[in-house]
Amino acid sequence: xxxxxxxxxxxxxxxxxxxxxxxxxxxxxxxxxxxxxxxxxxxxxxxxxxxxxxxxxxxxxxxxxxxxxxxxxxxxxxxxxxxxxxxxxxxxxxxxxxxxxxxxxxxxxxxxxxxxxxxxxxxxxxxxxxxxxxxxxxxxxxxxxxxxxxxxxxxxxxxxxxxxxxxxxxxxxxxxxxxxxxxxxxxxxxxxxxxxxxxxxxxxxxxxxxxxxxxxxxxxxxxxxxxxxxxxxxxxxxxxxxxxxxxxxxxxxxxxxxxxxxxxxxxxxxxxxxxxxxxxxxxxxxxxxxxxxxxxxxxxxxxxxxxxxxxxxxxxxxxxxxxxxxxxxxxxxxxxxxxxxxxxxxxxxxxxxxxxxxxxxxxxxxxxxxxxxxxxxxxxxxxxxxxxxxxxx
Length: 393
Ligand SMILES: *[C@@H]1O[C@H](CO)[C@@H](O)[C@H](O)[C@H]1NC(C)=O
Ligand SMILES: *[C@@H]1O[C@H](CO)[C@@H](O)[C@H](O)[C@H]1NC(C)=O
Ligand SMILES: *[C@@H]1O[C@H](CO)[C@@H](O)[C@H](O)[C@H]1NC(C)=O
Ligand SMILES: *[C@@H]1O[C@H](CO)[C@@H](O)[C@H](O)[C@H]1NC(C)=O
Prior knowledge:
The protein has 393 residues and is mainly β. It has a domain at 218-393: Single-stranded right-handed beta-helix, Pectin lyase-like (Pectate Lyase C-like). It has 3 helices and 28 strands. It has a 15-stranded parallel β-sheet that branches. An 11-stranded parallel β-sheet has the order 4-7-9-12-15-17-19-21-23-25-27. Bound molecules: 2-acetamido-2-deoxy-beta-D-glucopyranose (4 copies). Residues 162, 164, 185, 187, 212 line the site of one 2-acetamido-2-deoxy-beta-D-glucopyranose.
C-alpha cells in the first residue's frame, strides 16, 4: 500500500477535510506496524492533530495570568481527538497553577511539546497537594519539556525536560508502569527540602537515562513498590545521592525489587548509592539491586546501607530484609573516612551482598586511610578493595 505523496501536500483550505481523513489513515497504518515518515513541514496535515494552548486562551509573558484553565482545556481537546495528537505550548513564558492532564484519551499517542517555559505560581501554598503537573490515567503519552507527576499512567515517554524555579520541580511516578525518561535536566536549589529529583513508588518498568539532576534531596528516590527500574547515565549532584528507600516507615508499603543503576556520576553529594530503612514493625524486602560503574567525586558516604535511618542509637531493629545487592566497579573519592558502610538489621541481616572492584580514596587535606564498616552483613568480595574489605577486621 502506497500513499501518493501529493495527497499530503496542503495547497489550500479545501484540502483540510482530506488531510484529516488521510491523517486517520496514517494512524491506522501506523497501528498495524507500518510507519510512513512524513517530512516535517508546516502544513494543514501536521496541524490537523495539533492543539495550541494559545488558541484556548493561554497567554505568554504575562506574569499575572494563570494559564491552568487554558492548559486543561487544550489538553482535553488533544486527548479527545480521533488519531495522534500534539499539544503545543509555544515559545514564551507561561505562569500556571496546578494542572491535571487526565485520561483516558481517545487520541493516541498524545505528545505534549513544551517549546516555551512553564513557570509555577510563586506562592507554593496554592498547590494543595504539592503537585504542579499531574498526568492521570493516560495510556501512551510523549512528554517533551516541563515537570510532572505521573499517577496511574502507563506507556509514557518523557524526553528533554528542563526544570527551573525555586519550587524544586521534579518528576514523580506513582501507580504507573512502562515509563521511559531521558535527557532530563532537573535542577532545584541545594537547600530545597524534600524534593527528590525523580521519585518512584508503586511503579514498575521504568527506564531513566542520560540525565542531569541537582536537587536539595535525593537525585533519585526509589521507594516502596518500585520494581524493574533501570537507571543509566545520570549525573547527580549536589543533593543526597541515589537512594532506595526510605522503607519501612508507613503501613502497607510494598517490596522494592529489581533495580539496576549503571554508569552514573555523583558529585559533591552527601551520599552515593544507598539503601535506607527505618527501624520498626513493618516487614518488607529490598532485593535484586545492582549498582555498577559508578564514579564518586567528593561524596560523603559513597556506599551505604543504613537500616537505622533517622536513629542515632541502635534502639530497635529494622524488619526490612535487604538481600542480593551488588556493588560493582565503584571508584573515585570519598569526603568521609568510612567510605563503605553496611549497617544492616540485627533481626534481618543482609544477605547476598557483593562488593567487587571498589576503589575509593579520601579527599580530605590529610592523606588519611579510609575504612569499610559492616554490621550484620557478610559480603562477598572480589577484585580491588579500597578501602580494605571489612571481612579482614
Ligand atoms: C511502553 O511504552 C512505549 C511508549 O513510551 C510503547 O511504545 C511500548 O509499546 C510500551 N511497551 C509495552 C511493553 O507496553
Ligand atoms: C540544566 O539546567 C540548569 C539550570 O537551568 C543549567 O544551568 C544547566 O546548564 C543545565 N545543564 C545541562 C546539562 O543542560
Ligand atoms: C534504557 O534506556 C537506555 C538508553 O535509551 C538503553 O540503552 C537501555 O537498553 C534501556 N534499558 C532497558 C532495560 O530497557
Ligand atoms: C555513561 O553516561 C554518560 C552520561 O553521564 C554518557 O555520555 C556515556 O555515553 C555513558 N556511557 C556508556 C558506556 O553508556
